[in-house]
Amino acid sequence: MTPLLSHVSQPHDLCDLSAAELRVLAGEIREFLVQKVTARGGHLGSNLGIVELTIALHRVFESPRDAIVFDTGHQAYVHKILTGRRAEFDELRRRGGLSGYPARHESVHDHVDSSHASTALSYADGLAKARELRGDHESAVVAVVGDGALTGGVAWEALNNLAADPRRPVVVVLNDNGRSYAPTVGGCARHLRQLATASHPGRGNLFESLGLRYVGPVDGHDVAAVEAALTTAREMGEPVVVHCLTRKGQGYRPALGDLDEHLHAIPVSDPVTGRPLSSGVTWTRAFSDQLCALGERRPDLVAITAAMPGPTGLAAFGRRFPGRMFDVGIAEQQALASAAGMAMAGLHPVVAVYATFLNRAVDQVLMDVALHRLPVTLVLDRAGITGPDGASHHGMWDLPLLSIVPGMRVAAPRDAVRLCELLEEACDHRGPTALRFPKAQVGAELPAVGAFGEMDVLSSSGRDVLIVAVGATAGACLDAAALLTGDGLGVTVVDPRWVIPVGDDLAEAARGSALVITVEDGVAVSGVGSLIRQACPPGQHVLNLGLPCDFIPHGGRSELLAEAGLTGLGIASAARRELDRWPL
After folding, report:
1. To 5 degrees, how large is the angle CA 96–CA 99–CA 101?
2. DSSP states of 247-296 as a string?
3. Per residue in 400-410, pLDDT tens?
4. Catalytic residue at 360?
5. Among 52, 227, 261, 332, which one carries the catalytic annotation?
6. Which of 259, 260, 248, 265 is nearest to 41 (CA)?
7. Looking at residue 262, what is its pLDDT?
């Protein structure tokens, strides 16, 4: 451990450091971040860019008495280092180890479990109102928000409320690096650029027009300048925006070279080059390649991203068809509603989002897309267990949510070949569709050995047990079938391909089996398995396997799937227990 950083374990340790020592400390923190995050994976670029700003925050405000809320929480690594969790970075994002986001169970310095964007201003509004009602007029409420988060509508709803009462002080620290994952888009981004370069930024200032005070712009990599601005803001005693200009990836050459969105989020990587150590084709890459191929043949095909063109695989489509890819910012509701408008005008939009972020746009899926029976295709990346990003990022709820949308068809490919087939089928469909796949390497093709109606039969040795594999669970289901066949059972594994709605073929196949087992990497309650159970004839014995209805912590994807029993051994063991209770 470098000498200075080893003596900083709590915010008060910063108070007596000189300006020269603070510069040294910032450098040591960056070295520490590169060492630990490249070894474990995580969010690197955003944390390299907020080092000096975080140091200044903890020198001006007294955490945890003063509430510092981060939006999005991926920029809180430096905050964790300065609040006593430096030693825990060896287990960053591992099962039972340090979370990659603020986590209340870890520290009193973390006030919310924040990891979805654009919400910190609302948290701050609520915290300030509660403190006012309790008669607490001494402690401060600080929201640290990136400029990318201001592309989300809920952030503006909160700013509207914060400006409603000038007597309720909240300090909004705007960490402006010009990026979400990709460069920040829209009119707000243009306005911030104008403020950053204006000789008189107070003139025509949108924040001041709303009724908020404005301080800045400030060099976010100058601790003294940020401290002075934050001190001024605190003394104002009213809602104020402190506009700090930072650079994502500051101090690390690979990140500054725009390698993969300034190394925003990385897997285990080479600390010298910043490049991933693992290789192989991911589900996202397979989707990206097929979408580009379809785009060549389909001029009506357009793509929409909510600030994540790279992570969702749309960047390549945007480069090939620059007029047909639209980044709406961190605004999933806008993405879906805008897609509805495009579909009404004769286009076929493909909206690619993380499965967990679909939750933010359920109303638009229902009332803007499905109600109008529009041909919009949702592509849900990171479906199922995502692993080290934890409870807020597991894509567990999409199947139950989409199962209640009238007219919605949902596909779950088991391999890259089926992904290509199903994406094309979805784009040919004249109503709403969704395609889901996990965050993982795609693996080998799993060819069908036969067909039952429109279902693929993946293996068949008899009809004692029918295993229905949903998407990426197919490999584990085949492993389970091999184990059960070794017990002398006749086992058939089928892949419905289109899992919602449940087809008549599946209900017919279930009719001839003593036990039906459904396996999905989503919440077992109200998921595909529940629909299959309802579709089966009365008295049919059905066992639904899936994820528990709980907030699953962070850890390795394989590790968490094993804990949920979604491996070949786990599925076979569950089948044996069920057959012990209900023998054939």
Report:
1. 160
2. -TTTT-HHHHTTTHHHHSEE-SB-TTT--BS--S-BHHHHHHHHHHHHHH
3. 999 999 999 99
4. yes
5. 332
6. 265
7. 60
**Measured between alpha carbons, how far is residue 246 from residues 45, 206, 485 in Å?**
11, 20, 60
Residue of 36, 179, 248, 409 marked active site:
248
Instruction: Point out the residues of the chain with pLDDT beneath 50.
Output: none
- Strand locations in 128-204, DSSP E? 141-146, 171-176
The candidate with the shortest Cα–Cα distance to 456, out of 426, 424, 488, 411, is 411
- pLDDT at 442 (0 to 100): 94
Picking from 376, 380, 431, the residue whose alpha carbon sits closest to that of residue 406 is: 431
CB 152 within 8 A of CB 117: yes
C-alpha 181/C-alpha 306 separation (Å) is 10
Q: Quick one: residue 118, left, alpha or beta (phi over 0 = left, psi -120 to 50 = alpha)?
A: left
Tokens 């402006």 appear where?
Answer: 176
Amino acid in position 116: H
Among this protein's residues, is 557 annotated catalytic?
A: no
What end-to-end distance do the CA atoms of the chain give, in Å? 63
Which helix (H) or strand (E) is 241 found in, with range?
A: strand 240-245
Residues 1-30 pLDDT 10s = 568 999 999 999 999 999 999 999 999 999
* pLDDT at residue 259 in the model: 53
Element (H, E) at 328: none
* Residue type for position 313: G
Q: Which region, left, alpha or beta, applies to residue 3 given φ > 0 means left and ψ of -120 to 50 means alpha?
A: alpha
- The C-alpha atoms of residue 100 and residue 520 are separated, in whole angstroms, by 26
Q: Which two tokens stand for residue 545?
A: 């396997």
The pLDDT of residue 183: 78
Distance in angstroms (rounded) separating the CA atoms of residues 458 and 496: 10
Indicate if 129 belongs to the active site.
no
Please state, as a whole number, how many other Cβ atoms lie within 10 Å of the Cβ of residue 342. 19
H helix intervals, 41-98? 45-48, 51-60, 77-80
Dihedral of CA atoms 87, 258, 390, 151 in degrees, nearest 10, equals: 120
Is the four-CA dihedral 563, 565, 568, 573 of positive or negative sign? positive
Whether this prediction's pTM lies above 0.85 is answered by yes
Q: Contact at 8 Å (CB) between 52 and 227?
A: no
> Computed from CA positions of residues 40, 41, 47, 49, in that sequence, does the dihedral angle turn out positive or negative?
positive
